[in-house]
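Our preliminary data section would be incomplete without showing what the modeling component actually yields. Below, a chain of 300 amino acids is followed by its predicted structure, encoded as tokens that our downstream tools consume directly.
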Amino acid sequence: MCITINKVLFIINPVSGIKDNYAIGQAIGNQLNSHNIQFDVLYTTHAGHAKEYVHTIDANLYDSILILGGDGTINEILNGILLRLDGYLPIFGFLPGGTGNSVLHDLEYLDPITALKPVLNHKTKYIDVMALKFNNLIEYSINILGWGLVADIALFAEKLRFLGQSRYDIASLYYILKLQSRSCTLILDNKQYSDEYLFILVHNTIHTGKGMKAAPKARLDDGLIDVLVINKDVNRLQLLQLLSRLSTGSHIKSRYVKYFQVANVELIPNIDEGVNIDGDVKYITPVKISVLHKKLPIFY
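Predicted structure:
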């Protein structure tokens, strides 16, 4: 679908990822200027800044939001918009400015200038959004929710931030060696499963992390949630071998993996704890997850 752009809010997270987002932002701004697209720039200064800003801006100012940042920045802005009470829903544009860029991997936009082309061509589509309902709040995501080992790794990696990008590998190895399973009841489209699991991934995207195809059957606009379950029977060596196959998506053929595509998910662990939502561990289970089919307009 082709649309008319009046004015764009260009949000840049300058500390996201490993590249110089200031320089990339300048190059993008030059491209927007050369195509006579009006825009304002916001550089985020702290966690939650983007969410706070878009939650309160005048709905008449911008019809589009262009984002240069990672999955966490996208999540902030998504929630800042969808938690508004006035129904304001601008078109989202995504540029790769993070470390993992899971959403951008799905869209095959890993170069900022290539990712900008749909904006310059005014081309859009609608994608699904996952609604995550906790006991006293709601969160939105277009990427992933992870429970168990994957949340443990994210928490530990945050404590090892001084080690740079290697912190994820170190945190992953630590919890693979620990190999801790947890009891949980999983309800998928009203069908109940109760067992001990190493981890559960709930996906809207194919990718997680740095291009890992954790949910290879996922599509951004299919109206389905992809659920990946790793059971307690896998040993350390088998888990390492399994994780090594994430880059191709062939891990889902393993007998230790169960893969579902559903419309509704309910996660009820025996012990409630935080979950990994788009890279950040927050909130406390239980959680109910549903899909809002083709809710979000994006440049594509």
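The longest strand covers residues 191-203. The helical segments are 21-34, 49-56, 71-82, 102-107, 112-120, 149-159, 166-178, 236-244. Preliminary results of this kind motivate Aim 1 of the renewal.
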